[in-house]
Every structure is written in structure tokens, then in C-alpha cells.
Write a structure and sequence with these properties.
13% strand, rod-shaped, 13 strands, 5-stranded mixed beta sheet
Length: 584
Amino acid sequence: MGEKMQSSLKKTGYNKILTLSIVVLNVFYIWVLFEGPFHPIDNYPLFFTLSLVAYGMGSFAISTFSNNFRVVPHFFAIFPMLVLFDPLSTSIVAYLSVVFSYRKNYDMRARLYGSVQYAISYYVAGVVIQRIGCSWYGIILALLVFKIVNFVLVDLWYDYLRIRFRSLKAAIKGFFMELAFFSLTIPMVLVLPYTIHNVMLQIFVIYTLTFPPIFVKFLSIQNKSNEELKKEKTQLFQSVQKLKRILEVSQLLKANIPLRELMMRVAEIIHKDLGWEYVLVSMITPDGKIERIAYAGIDEKEFERLRKNPPSLEFVKKLMKEEYKISNSYFVPEEAKEVLPAESSFVGEYGEIKDENAWRDMDLLWIPITDRTGKMVALISPDKPKNGKRPNWEDVTILEIFANQVFIALENSTEFEKLQEKAIRDGQTGLYNHTEFYNKLEGVIQKDEKFCLAMMDIDDFKLVNDTYGHQTGDEVIKYIAETIKRSIRHGDIAARYGGEEFVIILKGIGKRTAKTIAERLRISIGGGNSPVKVTISVGIACYPMDASTSNEIVSVADKALYTAKLRGKNMVVVAGNGENRKLH
């Protein structure tokens, strides 16, 4: 975190120096314009033709190669102007052709610096030609002076301030490569003064001057295509290798090992084999909280801080918007400005942002691990891809394939199974809890299965607690739960609805059979070996006769239960058709 802040401060300082450099160079150039003499232009058609060629080359013919060698070819039009026209006029053309060049992603500071450094470089070269004359050694010396001034102002000073200076060796290599390329202009520059009164010969010279940069432009396009093809092949090979690695490690994950050890393996595999610098793995606890349990690439002390300050599940789900969705995962870009709280977030060491696809400090990627019902049970948070790029669909898909393997491993984990059961079971009775009851009820209704719902309540349970104490009351709750478990059929669903209330989903039966089962249960509880004698009242409603939704059928059964209470308790009441009557 500290190193990142230092880097940011350093970059801010360099930007201020760069701005100052732009101001100083432009002031110097303006002084040159006012001090230096202008000479009348003898051949306006040729002047404007070369100016247009310079603009076109500077806008559309820039060539970039894979080794970062870059050529701005307006030199082939502007340098010849130095032997035909005065240095000031030529430098103005250089300045304007850069400031107004048609180039995307070329910010104004870069335009202002580039234009003034080119103007000064060409002006100095033009002064050399004026002093020495338009001879072969004068042209060579002017070319060399131009490149030296340009090299100092751009390759050394500008690249250093923009924090993209590679090394002096690489810069010198680029200097000589560009010098060799620009030297192709020398023959035509020497010939050009002799064509001043021959238009056809001028056209031939201009054509000859434009041929090298255009040819190099085509070479750079071909080079770029080859690089992209090579890159695609490399990415395909890497994807295949990652998939093979996922299949290999899935066997390791199937071992029944402690949950934290399993997740540490998951984090390590994503870190080492799937190409992510930092990884956090979190579990969703039964009470709906995020618990960070595994990590890779992160300092242990830093992980401990993150573990103690997890974001809330509600906050994470709020950011899982459709607009951020990639496949079944979520990528929240830094530009969205929807970031985790500072105490919950990790910021590692990130490289320079070189293009719009580069991974940024505050980018977020979440790979949910879901169970077979679609419920999120864990969350993988990878950070900083080793290739420095924001993830594409293929990258996310590979992580999701791995996440599916992780869920299979979780299913084989005894510890995870216990956690899952804990999430859906009532801790006191072992029956399904209130939330899971509604999940099961919705599932049965969605399948459009015929069933009856029996809702029951312990009669005068408050009196039991007041007379015998809460401990005895707890024993009664357990006794009734065990009796229910023994009494229901295979496939029926029993749950503790809350307090002293219980519910049973009786599948595939009608009201008459439901009455029989409920009555048998009522008698069994009343005559069983309870810590104290208790009875129950039962209300029954059936789907789809009495209701069409989960809330409706619970409401109808609850009203039937209420009727049983009003009629004297210890009875079963069935909803609908005048059948509500006492059965005992």
C-alpha cells in the first residue's frame, strides 16, 4: 500500500515537471519565432503539397513494431522542406502537423510536447543547413543534429517523465534504427533543389520520398497481424493447458480434507496455475455472512486484517448487477466507482496502465460458487491477472469451470456437509428450520405436486414453561420433534415453524388421508412418554384445493389451527367444504 502511494506521488511529481517542460519549450519556441527572420516562400504549391503529405503521414502512417520500435514518418516530407524553405516556416509546419494530427488516444499534453519538440528539432536542423549549405555533408550533419535533439527531448527526457523509459541501451538502439531509416531521404533531398522548375520531377521525388514510410507502414500492419495471430495461438494453448491442469487438480480436490486446507489448495491453484497474482476465497456462513478462509499471494498479516474485516453479503450482492455480469460471474471496473470499504479491500502492487484493457487497482472480479439450487455457498476473488489485462469471457469461463470442480470437492467434504446441514436445520430439534421449510414448500408448488400441509401447535405450552421451567419445555419440544420424525412417511417434509409450532408437508395425498395421519400423530404425542403430558392442535390445508401459493396455503392451515384452538384444543381441523370438525 505504501509503495503504491509512493509510486503515485512520484508520478504526480513527474507530471508537474512535464507540464513545466511544455511551458518552457513553447515559450522558447515563441521567442525563436519572433527573433528569427522569415523568408518569402517561392513555391506555394510545393510548400502546401509537402505540408499536406507531412500531415497525412503524421496522422495515418505511424508504424509500430513488436519490439516497441516506432516511426513517425512526417520526417520524409518535413526534412526536405528545410532545403527549399526557411527553418521557421518548416518548423511551423512541423508544429501544426502534430498539434492537429488525426490520432486517437493522443492527449493534449502529448500533442503540445510533441509539436514543440519537433518544431525545435527541425528548426535547429534547418539552421545547420543554412550555415553549412545544401551539400551532402551538410544534409547528413543536419539529419544527425535533428535526431540528437529529438533523442534528448523525447527518448530520454519525455519517456523518463512518463515513466516508460526502458534503458539507455534500448534508447540508443532505437536512435540508430530510426537514424538509418531517415537516412533514406538523403538522396532525394539533395536532388530536390534541382526540380524547383520541373513539376513532374517534383512529383516523382515526392512519390519516392513517401514510398519508404508507406512500405514500412504495410510491414508494421503485417507484423501486427502476425503478432495478434501468434498471441491468439498462445492464448489458445494457455487455455488448453489451464483446462488440462483443472482436470488434473480436480482429482486432488476430491480428497476428504479439512475445509480450510481444501480452500487453501484452491487459492494456490488459481495463483500458480490459472495466472492470478492475488487470490481470496470466502465461504458464506449459515447465518449469511462472508468468512474469508483462504488466500494466495497475500502476506499472512494482511490476510489476517482482511479476515477480520469482511464485506457484508448484502453489499457484495448489491454490486452483483447485470451490467457487470460476465458469464455467471461479475467484473466491477474501477470506473464504476463502486468499491469495497477500505478496511475490507486489498490493494497490491500493480504495473503501469498502458491501455484501456489493463487491470486497474480497484477492479473487482467475483466468481461465485453455487450449489445445485443456485444458492451461493462460496466466493472466489482473484486480483491482478499476471498478463496485466482485464479478464475476457474465456478467462472467466476457465475460472468458472474450476469453481464447478471446487463445488464437487465441497460436496465430498464432510465438514462442508455439516455446515450446509447446519444452515437448513433447527439446532434444537434437527428438523428443517423456518427458512428451509419455505424453500421446500416453494419447490413442491413449482413442481405442481398434490400435497397437504399440517400445521400444529403445542397446547398451553406457556403453562408448561411456567410450571416446570424452560429446560422441561425444551425437552418437550425435542420429544414432539422425535415423535414427528417417527410418524411421517418417507418423502414427507417436517420442519419447526417457530417456537412451539411445527409443520409437515404430506406429499401426494388428499384431505381424508391427511386427517388420518394427523390424528395418529395427535394420539401418539398425547399418549407417549413425554416429560410432562402435553397435547397438540392441528390445522390442515391442501394444495391446490385450498390455495395456489405458499403464503396462501400456510395462511389457510394457520386459520384451521386457530379454529382447533377455539373449539377446545387437542384436535385436528381440516380447512374447507364444511369439514372442519373435531376428530378424537
